[in-house]
Design brief:
The chain is of the alpha/beta class. It has 2 domains: 241 residues, Aspartate Aminotransferase, domain 2; 122 residues, Aspartate Aminotransferase, domain 1 (Alpha-Beta Complex). 41% of the residues lie in helices and 14% in strands. It is built from 12 helices and 12 strands. The strands form 3 sheets. Strands 1-9-8-5-4-2-3 form a 7-stranded mixed β-sheet, with helices on both faces. Strands 7-6-10 form a 3-stranded antiparallel β-sheet, with no helix packed on it. The protein has a two-stranded antiparallel ribbon with strand order 11-12. Helix 5 links the parallel strand 2 and strand 3. The longest helix is centred in the C-terminal third of the chain and has 32 residues. Pyridoxal-5'-phosphate (PLP) binds next to helix 4 and helix 5.
């Protein structure tokens, strides 16, 4: 028991050190094994991880790559996406989703999101495809649906539209590996699924890493070739222009160790989310759940009335030792880099969310006491 006079330990937005203590001694043994065999690139741990990740989500193929961004890029390269192609994606997401089509010479077409779940809005997607067809300048080619903050996008609706319009579907599941929709884990909702193992993601490495999932054997083979400079059956046969996009063996070893506790971590995050819900409902807008889904709870985001309230709340939390963060302070169509590529269509939901949203600490090692303290601080800060 903590005595009343002892100060509470500081609340961490993310606590990778606490998680690391839970992973020992298995983690160190895994790393030592790599140091001993010395196959640092595409070593046996990469293959083992690919098999375990595929089994985890029920996908047929998994290809380990160097980051979530490179996973998105390899998936679009494999389809030959480039100049003249329109790639539809939500305006309210991380920058990488829009960056990748632009790097390949394609044009991102921003779609607004659902005001309650923050996921890409299928009805607006249909209207944006019609906009592009009417303008006649770009060819509708691909959809990148993002599973935002740990929850799944509305894949049944997105797939119906994509099938009718002949779009390639790519699931940007960078934040949401481990989540499920209609009883099925994410990883096979779209033609290809991209996952990130950036350290702060629900399944994070100790550096950059990512993976691609697909049901299609030919695509999986292309992804393996593209991640290794477009190589053929031998390393010095170059079949196509690829990239250096491999997952390194030490990161695979870290991820294998973390996979052992991943289910428990997901359950712990869910527990924090439920505690927050019960304490914060009525005080702020708590996150709406995508129906018949589970969340990986990468981010627990609340909504307040307006930007001034949020600034006051964030300052009040800071004063009480509670960290918070804004994902995302600006929708992508308002970023200087992407503004010139935007057709000017209004995206009011994304713009309002950027003003009102605030993320609270959530991670598997957040204690009930810390979660209660966070809720008490929200309550007090709103009264300031
Ligand atoms: C983190 C993230 C990415 C990029 O992943 P990296 O591994 O950092 O390259 C892409 N899309 C979304 C939505 C993300 O959150």
């Amino acid at each position: 028991m903590t005595r009343m006079s002892e100060p509470a330990p500081p609340i961490a937005f993310l606590d990778l050190a606490a998680q690391r203590r839970r992973l020992e001694p298995g983690l160190s043994a895994r790393l030592q094994a790599v140091l001993a065999h010395g196959q640092f690139i595409l070593g046996p741990e990469v293959t083992e991880l690919e098999q375990r990740l595929a089994a985890f989500c029920g996908a047929r193929h998994c290809v380990g790559v160097s980051s979530g961004t490179d996973a998105l890029q390899i998936a679009l390269m494999a389809e030959g996406v480039g100049r003249g192609d329109a790639v539809f994606l939500p305006a309210f997401t991380y920058t990488a989703t829009a960056e990748v089509p632009l790097v390949l010479g394609a044009t991102p077409v921003f779609v607004d999101v659902d005001p309650a779940t923050f996921q890409i809005d299928p009805a607006h997607l249909a209207r944006r495809i019609a906009d592009v067809r009417r303008a006649g300048r770009l060819r509708p080619r691909a959809l990148i649906g993002v599973d935002l903050f740990g929850q799944p996008a509305d894949w049944p609706a997105l797939n119906r539209i994509a099938a009718a319009e002949g779009l390639f579907t790519l699931d940007d599941c960078a934040q949401s590996f481990g989540a499920s929709l209609h009883g099925e884990r994410l990883g096979r909702m779209a033609a290809a699924t991209a996952v990130s193992f950036f350290p702060s993601k629900p399944l994070g490495a100790y550096g950059d890493g990512g993976a691609l999932f697909t049901e299609d054997e030919a695509r999986a083979a292309l992804y393996r070739s593209l991640r290794s400079h477009g190589e053929g059956t031998t390393r010095y046969e170059v079949l196509r222009t690829g990239m250096n996009g491999r997952l390194d063996t030490l990161q695979a070893a870290v991820l294998l160790s973390k996979l052992d506790v991943f289910e428990a971590d997901l359950a712990a995050r869910e527990r924090v989310a439920r505690l927050y819900d019960s304490r914060l409902a009525g005080l702020v807008d708590i996150p709406a759940r995508v129906p018949d889904s589970t969340s990986a709870w990468a981010i627990y985001a609340i909504l307040v009335a307006d930007a001034a309230t949020r600034a006051r709340l964030q300052e009040g939390l800071r004063a009480r030792g509670v960290p918070s963060a804004i994902y995302y302070p600006r929708p992508l169509h308002r970023q200087p880099a992407y503004l010139p590529h935007h057709d000017g269509v209004a995206l009011p939901v994304s713009e309002r969310l950027a003003e009102r949203i605030l993320a609270l600490p959530i991670h598997p090692d957040l204690t009930d006491a810390a979660a209660e303290a966070t809720c008490a601080a929200v309550r007090a800060a709103l009264r300031d």
